[in-house]
Amino acid sequence: MLAFWLNLLSPPFLALWSSNPSDAELTPSMICLNSKTLEHLADCLEGFIPARGLYDRASYNAGQPDTSQRAAWSSIVSSLLDVDGSCSSIQVPPPLGRTIRWLTADRHVFRKGWGAMIVPERRVAVSRTIHISAPNPEFDVGTPSQAAYLFKATGTKSFLMAGRTRTAFLHPSPCISVTSQSGYYETDPAHNNREPFFDASLAIHTWQQRRGCPSSTCHSPTSKAWYLDSSDRPVKRLKGHLQLTIPAWSVSLPPDSSCVLTATRNVVGRYINGVPEHSVCQAGANPTEALGEFVHIEQDDLSRGAGSYEMWAGAIRRTFETSCAEGMSVDPDTGLCAFSRPRTVAYDPAFDSAIPALSQSARAQWLLWLSLLNVL
């Protein structure tokens, strides 16, 4: 499953890594940050996601972020959204300071489930103000690396990977309950409002509403009509471009599909579509309130394979118009925003030293929030 947030808005994140001298063994920081591409980085990080059935009640409760940590998590998400050129100025709130560390790769996983987020390090690297999520790492195999590729190939504002697989704790979700035995579990990021993925998503959306674009344009009748117009909703445009790009595929919307996975119980989707935070576990979204900002995509194995990445990217570039920074315009060859002539990039020494394998140009473009936490 992939999810797109489609509004005139945006979110950022930063790389955090441990300087703990006791972590001298082989660690995810040594393994994953030597990745040559963002999709390989995402694939590597997916390998440290807590696996199916890893938690019991005691270990889940011990690993679950407490109230102060969740509030601090939301706070740092918000503060990172304004970064444009330097990740070194961001301070980790005290409640998170004791939880951020790299884990030993051969024995440990990401316990607290913060996840990983990637954003352009500078505003000039943003071509389209959309957000891409991979909420089901390990369960929907390959979607984190697919989302990471689409993020960079379309000039998207941000990418978020959840920090737990949905089946890591096989206890029914206290938020969304269903009668079938194959229901939603407590570590399901899309169906439990106590997961860090939900906190991050709400912080991003709140920042978007406040800072993503001026209120005079964000909430104008014209802006809302862009989403509500039945002849030109983003999801319809994406469907059309995918079908033109890959005629052999069956690309459908709920009215003409037998697939029942339509995300009507997705707590992030409900919130974005107008359901109050305190009601996302009980109330579905009202179609008349949905603005078209949330697009949920279900895929088969072929669709999310590496051979399909560029076809997806092309369809997304044609679906969503660009939002270039001042002094930039769309390059007709790449579909991305570019300056008319090369510009010298100012590097951030802390960020450059964190990801040695990526090229300087790549390191200048992306910030990472890699939350790799306490030993189980």
The mean pLDDT is: 74
Helix/strand/pairing class, anyone?
alpha+beta
Q: Helix amount, in percent?
A: 25-40%
The number of helical runs is: 14
Write down the domain tally: 1
Q: What sequence of helices (H) and strands (E) makes up the elements?
A: EHHHHHEEHEHHHHHEHEEHHE
List how many beta strands DSSP finds. Answer: 8
Sheet bearing the most strands, described? 6 strands, mixed
Strand content: 5-15%
Low-confidence stretches: 5-26, 101-107, 214-228, 345-356, 369-376
Approximate shape: globular
Computed Rg = 20 Å
**First-residue to last-residue Cα separation:** 28 Å
Strand order of the largest sheet: 5-1-3-4-2-8
Structure description:
The chain is an alpha+beta fold. The chain has one domain. Helix content is 32%, strand content 11%. The protein contains 14 helices and 8 strands. Helix 2 packs antiparallel against helix 6. Residues 1-24 form the signal peptide. Keywords: Signal.
Topology:
Layout: E1 2-6, H1 28-32, H2 38-46, H3 57-63, H4 67-80, H5 94-97, E2 115-120, E3 128-134, H6 143-154, E4 156-161, H7 196-212, H8 215-218, H9 221-228, H10 234-245, H11 267-272, E5 294-297, H12 309-319, E6 328-330, E7 337-339, H13 349-354, H14 360-363, E8 366-371
Parallel strand pairs: 3-4
Antiparallel strand pairs: 1-3, 1-5, 2-4, 2-8, 6-7
Helix pairs in contact: 2-6, 4-7, 6-12, 10-12
